[in-house]
Amino acid sequence: MTKCTTKNKVRQVMDELVARFESGDVPAALAVAIIRPPKDRPCSRWSFHNRVLQSLEGTADARGYRQWQQVGRQVKKGAKAFTILGPRMVTETKEDKRTHEEVKRSKLIGFVAIPVFRYEDTEGEALPGYEPPEPPPLEEVAARLGVTVSYAGSDGGTAGGYWVEEKKIVLASHDPSVYLHELAHAAHYQVEPTLKPTGEDPYKEIVAELSAAALARLYLPADQQNLGYKRGYIAYYAKRQEITLAKACLNVLATVGKVLALILDQQQDDAQTGADAA
Fold it and tell me: Which of 36, 42, 49, 86 is nearest to 64 (CA)?
């Protein structure tokens, strides 16, 4: 690869990131990227910038072609790589002014473009699960609602999803707020069974995120509540409905109350069961 081509590729990556900021895609990716991946994934050693790029590509695990082969997986035919940026270092030898000894130091002189492939674009040996180091709060509530919870690579750029027909939550993030959002979706379908299992819908998203915000205040420490992000999330869908943030929240308040009542009732049932067993 020529020097000129490398510079162009690096510039393309930066331009793409700027474009994503302008389109509004990045805030959601930031929420995912801020969670450190397991240490057995190469991306755990990447810069935060590169983890954001990975999240924008809709995956929780990306590696180079040979890196995938090393873990028994092969890139699918026709799969396209995306690009991350790696540091371009040189070693300089300089004299230490105090000791007059020669000292070798590494110096960053630029970046190189590195092609990587998503987990979803590979096939082969199964890899260890994506389970978090500790379960999210209210994990037991999903089971009581008849909903399964699993962790996997992100599909389609989302941090998580709820599949209505299969009654399952699939998470691509260890952020407990993501789980609470999907749990709220699951409960919403139970308190309002006439809901159609369609795709993205402002009404359902506002109900889920407002419910998740309330649960976060109850069960998460302050540094994990992400209330600013939640406010922006709801404001985005309020704007799509051409109403104010306050109006959007008021419109769904009764439904959110039912969703929270169902979730908290299930949680209290679990707590009572534990007390009876003791």
Answer: 42
How far apart (Å, rounded) are the C-alpha atoms in residues 265 and 261? 6
Per the prediction, the chain carries an average pLDDT of 82
Q: Residues near 261 by Cβ (< 8 Å), separated by ≥ 6?
A: none
* Residue 196, pLDDT above cutoff 70: yes
Tokens of 253: 């308040």
pLDDT of amino acid 275 = 42
> Is the alpha carbon torsion for 114, 119, 120, 121 positive or negative?
positive
The Cα 30–Cα 175 span in angstroms is 11
Q: Apex CA 63: angle with CA 174 and CA 40, to 5°?
A: 50
Q: What 3-state class would DSSP assign to 135?
A: coil
- The answer to whether 37 and 51 are in contact (CB under 8 A) is yes
Q: How far apart are CA 81 and CA 120, in angstroms?
A: 11
Residues 6 or more apart whose Cβ sits within 8 Å of residue 117:
62, 63, 64, 65, 68, 75, 79, 81, 82
Report the percent of the chain where pLDDT is more than 90: 40
The three-class DSSP label of residue 260 is helix
- Burial environment of residue 173 by CB neighbours within 10 A (0 to 12, 13 to 18, 19 or more): buried
Close Cβ partners of 270 (under 8 Å, ≥ 6 residues apart)? 140, 141, 144
Quick one: tokens of 153?
């690579």
